[in-house]
Amino acid sequence: MHCWAFLALLLLPLNLHAQVLVVTGANNSSITLSKNQISDVFLGKVTSLPDGSGVTLVDQPESSSLRDEFYKKVANKSAAQAKAYWAKLYFTGRGVPPRVGKDDADIKKILNSIHGAVGYIEQSALDDTVNVICILQ
Amino acid sequence: MKNIVLLNAMILMCGLVATCCHADEGRSGIEFTGSGFMTIAAGKMLSGTNGNVGGYNCPCYASDYAQAAMYDGRSDWQWGPDSKLGLQGIASFDEQRFTLTTQVVSRGAEQGAIDLEWLFASYKLNDKVTLQAGRQRLPMFYYSDAQDIGFALPWTHLPTWLYGWQVMNYNGASLRYQDQIGDWSAIAGLFGGSEQNKDSGYWKIGGNGALSVTNVNWTNILGGNLTLSKEWFETRVVYIQSNTQDQAVSNTWDYATLAYDIQPTAAPVAKQQIYGLTIKVDYQNWQLHNESIYINHPGLTYKDFAQIVAVGYRYGKWLPMLTWGQYRGTVVSDGVLPGAPPSIANEQQTYSLSLRYDLTVSSDLKMELDFTDDHSDPGFTPLYGTSRLLTLAYDIVF
């Protein structure tokens, strides 16, 4: 699987099955992360962005099928497996699990209120309030 | 315990002072978060070697040595050994740069008694380096940090022959460094401190008897660990050294008279060196976990070695897994038993079949069959023989 640039979205047919877009807030500076880097960040293996700045992660709610799809695509884990991984870190004070947004709109709001926040949304939720840093297929 | 509370109060005060004197604007306020985990588990002994071993009505299976959690030969379902409830609170200051973490656990193996598992302060020097001080988990094994969190494990209980040991926590300080090196994620740690484990669960099962009281002291603990991971591969090495002393206080079991007839004594202070290696593979739907530990006791004539190999295949929400675990140690008989050989081997093996089903994102159901065989030399005590155990578990984090 590869991480595609934002402009590739314009070239893709709209009738493809839903893609997962990894995004930051529009007010954040441009960040580039590979799929492996996104996996490391969302599994707590790395706690800072390539430029050295801290990162705040934002997850979809547990009831969202997109959450399962995201972890499957980025780390080949189910959402439950990812949570089990975080439980191992969180309950030992070794890491802070991702914040959880209520839905795509709430996640975009969070991304624009915290510098260095990274989350993921459905393609249909894309607008000019977020920057796409990776497309997961 | 009083000294630990006082130490952490001092650390908290230092953190508050540091926060007040920090030059950044807009960083104030305390954030409190609470969370918890729970396992409800039941086990049934299907078959095994009958007998009174150290006051236990066997066949027996030790699911957690440190907590003296033992499934014995009673015919009904047993709910105590693996059931537990843990609550954790975190107070965060300065946008989580400084945190105070406390966790208490109530265990069925201890009739619901509440233990303070850890109480430590963390300070992030920067995004890569974290300093922690207080009561923490000793990172002897890969799953040491998560050993009470059933939801984080593929088994109903950790493989006994590897994870069963005398000391699980320590009071001291640790330094953790986390970084990306090329395509590798790296986490390195240094730690040091001491631990006084009063009324050790390990020695109740390990030979002194179910009602025995043995205190275990580990002093001058010093160690380091390194975890490297890249995509589907992860490896971990650990080294720990310390002084150890086991002090039998009362009720030491005599395997000849089947009663607490032995006068309790204190063993001399000894040194130990612990070496651990873990290799984990999580490739597509396959999971492999190989972990081993070797303990050298300089100046003494016995060594310990334990390992597990676990292979699992993830099929949707299901995770079946086959695990083989082994412990091998030798004990010098020192002539106490007439006619006994100069050294006696203690060797245990268990094959485990486990099945995990992810019920929700935060909970799971598990079933596990453990087939244990005791390959120890005839003169070794305690000799538990074989056991066949079925356990069912429900885990949740909240």
What CATH calls the topology of chain B is Porin
How many helices of chain B in DSSP terms?
A: 3
Count all strands of chain B and give the number: 22
The N- to C-terminal Cα distance of chain A equals 7 Å
The structural class of chain A is: alpha/beta
Number of domains of chain B: 1
Shape verdict of chain B? globular
In what range is the share of β-strand residues of chain B? over 45%
**Could you state the order of secondary-structure elements of chain A as H and E?**
EHEHHEHEE
Q: How big a fraction of the residues of chain A is strand?
A: 15-25%
CATH superfamily membership of chain A: Periplasmic binding protein-like II
Q: According to CATH, what is the topology of chain A?
A: D-Maltodextrin-Binding Protein, domain 2
Largest contact between chains: A-B, 32 and 43 residues
Please write the CATH class name of chain A.
Alpha Beta
Order of helices and strands of chain B: HEEEEEEEEEHEEHEEEEEEEEEEE
Please give the count of helices of chain A. 4
- What is the CATH C-level name of chain B? Mainly Beta
Low-confidence regions of chain A? 5-16
Main sheet of chain A? Answer: 5 strands, mixed
- Strand pairing plus helix content of chain B: what structural class? mainly beta
Oligomer: heterodimer
SSE topology sketch:
The complex is a heterodimer of chains A (137) and B (398).
Chain A: E1 20-25, H1 35-42, E2 56-59, H2 65-75, H3 79-90, E3 99-100, H4 104-113, E4 117-122, E5 130-136
Parallel strand pairs in A: 2-3, 2-4
Antiparallel strand pairs in A: 1-4, 1-5
Chain B: H1 2-20, E1 30-48, E2 51-53, E3 56-58, E4 61-64, E5 69-71, E6 84-93, E7 98-107, E8 114-124, E9 129-137, H2 160-163, E10 169-181, E11 184-197, H3 201-208, E12 213-230, E13 233-250, E14 252-254, E15 259-262, E16 270-283, E17 286-296, E18 303-313, E19 318-332, E20 343-360, E21 363-374, E22 387-397
